[in-house]
Design a protein that fits this description.
eight-stranded mixed β-sheet, DNA_methylase_N6_adenine_CS, SAM-dependent_MTases_sf
Length: about 180
């Protein structure tokens, strides 16, 4: 796994040891950023279920100003720290070991709004709809922001979740990407 483009293009990223996480492939990562970007002029990102941190690090490499990484797995948190250090992004990140819903509630209290939110929960514990509802109800997405949902291709997400609407849906084998905006 590597950084596909931007200021850290080609940097190799470690994957989380074991099989508790499923890293986003370089092909899917490149497709995601071709849809949503491909580059950013600053902005704040949130990488929930961050795993190795590949999506958030890619956003930083492509110009995001800051990314908050959240994962419940201790090995994932350690891997994110190592990958952030490898890419020399320590001053542009916050890393938290927390459950996604609790993390969202903590972020609501900070009154933050994100320009890009990556949601890549474990496919077997699919909770995207609940998370999208929380993000919508609590205005965690900036007005021009984008939510990227990565999920199993058998999952079909609704066209609208409150004020959020499905902008795009693409399938890559067993993986699907659904993009939401206001």
């Amino acid at each position: 796994m590597r950084v596909v483009s931007g200021t850290r293009k080609g940097k190799t990223l470690k994957v989380v040891p074991g099989n508790s996480t499923r890293p986003t492939t370089d092909k899917v990562k490149e497709a995601i950023f071709n849809i949503i970007g491909p580059y950013f002029d600053g902005g704040m990102g949130l990488d929930l279920f961050a795993g190795s941190g590949g999506l958030g690090i890619e956003a930083l490499s492509r110009g995001a100003e800051k990314v908050i990484f959240v994962d419940m797995d201790g090995k994932a948190i350690q891997t994110i720290r190592e990958n952030v250090k490898t890419c020399e992004f320590e001053d542009k990140v916050e890393i938290y070991r927390n459950e996604a819903e609790r993390a969202i509630k903590a972020l609501i209290k900070r009154e933050l709004a994100f320009d890009i939110i990556f949601l890549d929960p474990p496919y077997k514990k699919q909770q995207l709809l609940k998370l999208l509802e929380l993000i919508n109800e609590n205005n965690l997405l900036s007005e021009s922001g984008t939510i990227v949902c990565e999920h199993g291709s058998e999952i079909l997400l609704p066209d609208n979740v409150g004020k959020l609407f499905k902008q795009k849906h693409e399938t890559y084998g067993i993986i699907a990407i659904t993009i939401y905006k206001f």
